[in-house]
Each structure stands twice: as structure tokens, then as C-alpha cells.
Amino acid sequence: MSEAQSSGAPSAAQATIQRRQPRRATTIWSLLAPLLGALAGLLVGAFLIWLSGANPITAYGVMVSGAFGGTRQITETLLLIGPLLLMGLGLTVAFRGRVWNIGGEGQYYMGALAGTVVGLFFQQRLPGLALIPLMLIAGMAGGALWAGIAALLKIRFGVNEIIATLMLNYIAEYTVLYLARVPLKDPTSFLPQSAQLLSPARMPTLVGTRIHLGIALAFLLIPLIYLLLWKTPLGFRIRAIGANTTVAYHAGMNVAFGLAFALLFSGALAGLTGIIEVSALHTRLKAGISGNYGFTGILVALLGRLHPLGVLVAACFFAALAIGAQTMHSVYGLPIALAQVIQGLVVLFVLAADALARRYGK
After folding, report:
1. Given 124, 212, 263, 317, which is the most exposed site by the fewest CB atoms within 10 A?
2. Cβ atoms of 77 and 320 closer than 8 Å
3. What is the pLDDT of residue 154?
4. What are the CA-CA distances from residue 264 to residues 71, 97, 145 (Å)?
């Protein structure tokens, strides 16, 4: 059976996808489940805030105002939404194909490294109009190539991608830190960091703000990812492989290509996230540039139920919670780690509610 048959009568792969996703979007319970799960997680978080000696209602109000209470607050929230959205969208493609990419951190670092090297080499040779796209392409290539190592290990040798991508995180991080300390180190600085990117290598920003082009790219990718997954033959093959690899194989699909594409595509977006963050905010390679986006992006993708619009909502939620937690910390003295606990609670309750909706909401 060939892939072309997928466009005609329903194939075994199509039937499998339909069985794996039975009418869940058509029931009221399945639509309300994520909202109810999020509310339950916030209620448990309110109890923890109360145990910490603060008024939960007031604390949540401070968190909301800290994230959206003014131009500066909204700007900071948008700056955090951008990388979370990019990382979550890339992982959505991988997870839809049942490829468990846990290596976003490493792919982020290698994308940041590749794009920064291009920027440092060409920033006095090319104008920004030509250099910025070149840096973004280099960042995507760096992340994709790093993910490609895990893809090769999985397809050629059967190595579990969870283990491979996780171990590659540490190799990438310490490689970048070594390069920033020695061969790329800024000779004018005593700190372990690379030379600074100059103006031609900086992401363009909205006049008078810190909002940069990378945020617009992240939002632009939302409809593009949707079209890729649900309106193209390639997207159908990725979802079919994720639904049942064996059925997809016997339906004539190139499973190895689908797995490799999903992993490389998510790695490319992780690398794109890395170079955007370096070019727009950090302006150089150094420790602490990742912000744990690779791991938080996993939660964003899962909380967004592996749908681009859901990923946007989840990215906004995590960004608002992180930015608002800083305000809550400064006002009440509550630990910022409490926000991470609330994030985890919300994710667990949403996933539990979604599982119940799948089982009983038919």
C-alpha cells in the first residue's frame, strides 16, 4: 500500500488515528476538562500560598498585575512568551509523532552557538538586513544537527531518543561554556563569556521597546505549524506514526523519515529559540542563557494538548506565572519556587482531567 492511498479511501493509518482520538473534541466535558483541571491546580496552589502566610486572592491578584499591569509588565511577559512558544511548537511536532525529544536545552545551546559564531564573524562584513536571516538559519541548522545525532542513534541503532537527547543536553551545554571561556572569550572581559554581538547582529526591535522580531516570528509559526500538522500529507504521516507506528509502516509510510523529520524540526525550532535569545537579549554566549526553556517547553506542549493554539495559551500562562511570581516575591517575600510548584500542579491536574475526559467523556 502506498502513501498516496491516504488521500483516497480511509486507510488503516487513518482508522487508527480516528480510534485513538474518539470524538473527544465534540463533548462538553472534553472542552471543559483543561479549564477545570487548571482551576483545580490553582486552588491547590492557593492553599499552599495560604500556608505560606499570604492571602491567596491578593497574591494571585499581584501575580496578574505583575504580568499584565502595565506596559513594562506586558513587555516582560511577551519577552518570555516568545521562547516558550517557539520551544513548545517545535516539541508539539515531535510529540505528535511520538518522538520524545527531551533535548531542547542542548539544541537551544547549539543553535545559540552556531548563530553567534556566524554573527561574530560577519557582523563587520554584512549589514543587519542580510546578517540576521543568516544567523537565524545557522541557529536552526545547529539545533537540527544536534537533534540529528539522536535521530541517527534511534533509527540506525535503536537507541531510545529520551536517553540520547537528555545526555546530549549536557554535552552541548558544557561545550558551549568551554568555547565561551576559551576560544571565543572576549579578550577585553574577565568574565567567562564570548565577545559581544554588535548592532548588525542584534534582532530588530519595535521602536522605543524591547519587543523584538523574534516574538513576531514565534506568533507567525502558530498557523504554519497548524497547517503542517493538519493540512499536509507530511503532517498526516507524522500523526499516523504517532498513533501507531506499526500500522503506519504497513500502510507504506516511511516511518524512519517521519521520525527523523519530527526530531530535526523540533531541534531546528529549539536552535532558533537559542539564537533569538542571544541576539535579542544576552548579546553574547555565557552561562545561564537557556532559562530552562527546553524543559519548560515540554510542559508547554503537553499543557497545550499538542495543538498550536493550546501551546499559545500554555505559553502565556507559564510566562504570566513566572513574571507574576517575581512581583509576588518582592511584595510578599514568597519564594519564586512556589510558582514552579503551582506550574507543576496545574500541569498534573490538566493532564489528569484530560485523561478522565478521554475515558468517560465519549
Report:
1. 124
2. yes
3. 95
4. 37, 12, 7
